Amino acid sequence: MTGVLLLKLLLAPTLVVASTLAGRRWGPRLAGILIVLPVVAGPILLIIYLEQGPTYLTAAATAATLGVVPLAAYAVVFATVARRHGWLVSLVASCGVVLAVDVLLTTVRVPPVAALGLAVLALAGAGLLLRRLPITTNDRAPAPPGWDLPARAVATALLVLLLTGLAGRLGPVWTGVLTPFPIALSVVCAFTTAQSGVTGLVALLRGVVPGLNGFALFCCVAAVATPLLGGAVALIAATVVAVLFAVGLQAVAARG
Prior knowledge:
It is a single chain. The longest helix is centred in the C-terminal third of the chain and has 47 residues, at 183-229. Helix 4 packs across helix 8 and helix 8 (148-178) packs across helix 9 (183-229). This protein has one domain (2-255). It is globular, with a radius of gyration of 17 Å. The protein has 10 helices and no strands. It has helices at 2-26, 28-34, 41-52, 54-66, 69-82, 87-105, 112-131, 148-178, 183-229, 231-255.
């Protein structure tokens, strides 16, 4: 029990902070790879597997794949509202949309591959809309404030504790749909909007949205592979696939 509690408190927040620091230290290329990796969803699904078993993991991972769809809406709403309002209004509006779509998705039952297809379509649409938003170029991004990393770590720990603690009551569908809820991303978007304006926000989201395909792929592979390989091996395989996707995505971006 103590070991699982430590996983809840430390694993995901540590991965979030480490990936953030690595991205800042070694530049945007590595940051682009790290942002695709399931540094929050991976630990959540691992803890769910340890506490609830493989059947629960399969259903939750399927729902988490579908839960990427609201993230596409989140990106578009945040960027659109931020053009006329501040970060707080944008944050409330975008999170409200995510919750509304999550409620609708709990009534949808599709296999993992179909959920992946819906997520990819939603992200493609969001990417198209974001590319149509005009932005100017910032020569230099502002330094992050001192509270940035602690806020990301605390927000991530709260999400992990909440979802894994309530998993037995929520059920696998609600747990899975809420797993991708953009708590850490909200911290980043709010900070970027406040410091860099809409230009910085849109530039950020244009990089984040394509990477979310890797997140959806991770959840889909975990859902498909768990009945075949078991939860632990399935999560490892899903992580490897997500890493390969991230590296490939960055290679394509570098050529462009």
